[in-house]
Amino acid sequence: MEKMKLQKLYSDFKPDIDIIENELEKALQSTSHLLNDASLHLLHAGGKRIRPLFVLMSAKFGNYSIDRMKYAAVPLELIHMGSLVHDDVIDHSNMRRGRPTVRSQWNNRVAMLTGSFIFGRAIQYVTHIENPKAHQILARTMVEICKGEIIQIEDKFRINQNLKDYFRRIKRKTALLIESSCEVGAVVAEADPEVTKRLKRFGYYVGMSYQIVDDVLDFTSTDKQLGKPAGSDLLQGNITLPILLMKNHPKILRFIERASKGIVTEQERLEMLQIVRKSDSIKQALKISDQYLEKAMKEVERLPDNPTKKRLKEIALFIGKRKF
Amino acid sequence: MPGDCMKCRKQCLKWNGVIPMDTTYIENQIEQLKKAIYRQVEHRTLVKYTGDPLVDENQLFYLLLPLLNGDHWDEENYEGVIAVGIVEASLAEHSYIDEHDATSKVQQLTVLSGDYYSGRFYEILANSGNISLIRELSESVILRSEHEIRIYEPNRYAIDDWLETLTIIETECISRFYQLYNYNHYLYIMKKHLLILRLQNELLNYREGNSSLLLQKMMESFQRSEDMNFEHYLQNKIDGLVHQLRELLRTSSMKSELKRYIEERLIRESKER
């Protein structure tokens, strides 16, 4: 349902997104059957393809050509996919998007090689673009994402962290890749530098909102909707915004302590979900997400007149209100 | 002095090989390259939990070989060898991930150290606009992944296929660097030597009862195709490669000090193993 809403929103881009989808499939072709299976397994599990979409939408503010833009859009999705495969190794996750993860279907080493293969393809693909600026943006993003993940590991189960820590972490974890999608799209399409800056900021704000909503959905969605157990973030020790906004709740503190020892029962998980869902923190977190969205909208307002402006706003709103 | 040569690249370019070159000189150069790689990927948390990046001194030697032999060498080449060293370190980190359980903090950070190094190689080359080397190295990562994953495939490969896989794992990144900068005259020597070293290492582990998964796969292929003791086969293979390498060295126009160094390395490594 939600996916259909999204597809409707980007119906203008449907033919080009289809090209990207085909290119993704081509990019993941390998001489190894196992690598083919493992990487296509993830590709076919779906995904919203919002990163390529942001690349294409931003490129509409410059000299748009899908033949050129595909070399920017495809790598952005591949970087995202590669990092998911490696994240599942780190988190020991068995399910993603309702399917077994590469690591659970094969093993961690296969997942590591699959992720490296996908990263390799992403970089190889983007070398079709000769503009060093595009490479600098992508490379910096890859490095910063890793730094964000390293901080996330350091911060696991650390209850004495503050909102600043959280925002810094999600900036690197999610916002940067969406920010870069917008910036790279504009840079490769040779958009005006001022327009590029606005699109970059738009991507950052949307990315922050996106991750906050993601963190909320981890508590409010069902296991089926998530394709994994609800509350997994906290079980893994990731203290997200809803928890930070209610971190002094004694039962939540006790839950975190037990989760850090790996001794949480199913009953306790369900109880924790009830507490979080009933609390005010979900509403507060969504309010913060909305504030980021408002900032994103302001950036769109300042962009030159272009039919894509309307689409950018709609996509941003969808991201703020999505239910998956 | 060797150190000055690196810092003052103009001198380096004019260097005509008159400076006496002995083992200490070569090892100093390798040490400097190692430190340069460390500096480029330094990260407080990673150093604390996963230690320094894993770099192979034999690979570093071959990366520096054109410089040591007095070939054209400039800032771009030196930055290139740092990038290649970082890619090797990235892939080496990932090879330490446990097949079934990577949940410890050290294992989790080992996953990220490999990814971080991989991002850094790209960032270094992107900042200098060296897109050709970015392409070569990304393709070598793809090829290496395709070969390394073979050990998990149900397909049966011939023993020569496994030797090809080992060669690609050990030499592909350096080969790409050589090809891009026209250092192809070192290619065969480098490939033979690094394969010998890997096989010697595999043989030692086999004798100690710690065969790698790749060696086990080789043994399976061997049992089906040869009527010979596997250890004997492997030793023969190594001896044959050593003979070929010596022949290559004999006919090579490389500086005699470097030939001697490679010979010493061969003897030293075989004694150590």
UniProtKB/TrEMBL annotation, chain A:
Pfam families: polyprenyl_synt (PF00348). It comes from the Bacteria. InterPro entries: GerC3_HepT (IPR014119), Isoprenoid_synthase_dom_sf (IPR008949), Polyprenyl_synt (IPR000092), Polyprenyl_synt_CS (IPR033749). Its cofactor is Mg(2+). PROSITE patterns: POLYPRENYL_SYNTHASE_1, POLYPRENYL_SYNTHASE_2. GO terms for biological process: isoprenoid biosynthetic process. Its EC number is 2.5.1.30. One of its GO terms (molecular function) is metal ion binding. It catalyses: 4 isopentenyl diphosphate + (2E,6E)-farnesyl diphosphate = all-trans-heptaprenyl diphosphate + 4 diphosphate. Keywords: Magnesium, Metal-binding, Transferase. Heterodimer of component I and II. Supplies heptaprenyl diphosphate, the precursor for the side chain of the isoprenoid quinone menaquinone-7 (MQ-7). Belongs to the FPP/GGPP synthase family. This is Heptaprenyl diphosphate synthase component 2. It comes from Ureibacillus terrenus. The lineage of its organism: Bacteria, Bacillati, Bacillota, Bacilli, Bacillales. The gene is hepT.
UniProtKB/TrEMBL annotation, chain B:
This is Heptaprenyl diphosphate synthase. It comes from Ureibacillus terrenus. InterPro entries: HEPPP_synth_su1. One of its GO terms (biological process) is menaquinone biosynthetic process. It comes from the Bacteria.
